[in-house]
Amino acid sequence: MKHSCQHLCDRFQTAMSVLAKPWNGLIIATLEEGALRFGEIGERLDAISDRMLSSRLKELEALGLVERRVLPGPPVRVEYELTAAGRGFGEVAQAISRWGELLAESATRAGGAKGGPRAARPGPRAARPPGPAAKRARPRAAQPRKGP
Q1: Cα separation of 42 and 30, whole Å?
Q2: CB of 58 closer than 8 Å to CB of 24
Q3: pLDDT digit string, tens, across residues 108-125
Q4: Is the link from the previous residue into 130 a cis peptide, with omega within 30 of 0?
Q5: pTM, entire model
Q6: Are 122 and 134 in contact (CB under 8 A)?
């Protein structure tokens, strides 16, 4: 179901529908560094599963924000790069970072001089135990052995 707010611009709502999906903004911001292979993106976003990354990259490609390029081999390699429309996110990311600074300052002030409960909350990574992506990122030899 698509949400619509008549008092907001359609273009704003289109942009927000892209950013509202988990990982999209982080994937686009990661690709600001330049063309990256699938594994390189996964390493930089270590909590995302391969399945979710693949799904999001396909969606971003369909929206015209990401270009998938197959490089001839051997070995054949695939890399992802932002299109001109995708690179337009750079200014948005900078604005979001500035807003994030204001949010952090506001949370610190709201928590009081001692840091209060808001300032003491862990970030999203600290709040979550490592998921399947963390296991994927470890070399096979480093995985704990099961059994006696």
Answers
A1: 10
A2: no
A3: 999 854 444 444 444 444
A4: no
A5: 0.69
A6: no
φ, ψ for residue 122, nearest 5 deg:
-70, 155
Name the residue type at position 89: F
SS (HEC) of the chain: CCCCCCCCCHHHHHHHHHHCCCCHHHHHHHHCCCCEEHHHHHHHCCCCCHHHHHHHHHHHHHCCCEEEEEECCCCCEEEEEECHHHHCHHHHHHHHHHHHHHHHHHHHHHHCCCCHHHHHCCCHHHHCCCCHHHHHHCCHHHCCCCCC
| Contact by Cβ (8 Å): 80, 57 | yes
Rounded to an integer, what distance in angstroms lies between the CA atom of residue 27 and that of residue 47? 12
Distance, CA of 58 to CA of 79 (rounded, Å): 13
pLDDT per residue as tens digits for the range 32-90? 999 999 999 999 998 999 999 999 999 999 999 999 999 998 899 999 999 999 999 99
Bridge partners (DSSP) listed for residue 69:
79
The alpha carbon torsion through 62, 63, 64, 65 (nearest 10 deg) reads -110
Q: Across the strands, what pairs with 78?
A: 70
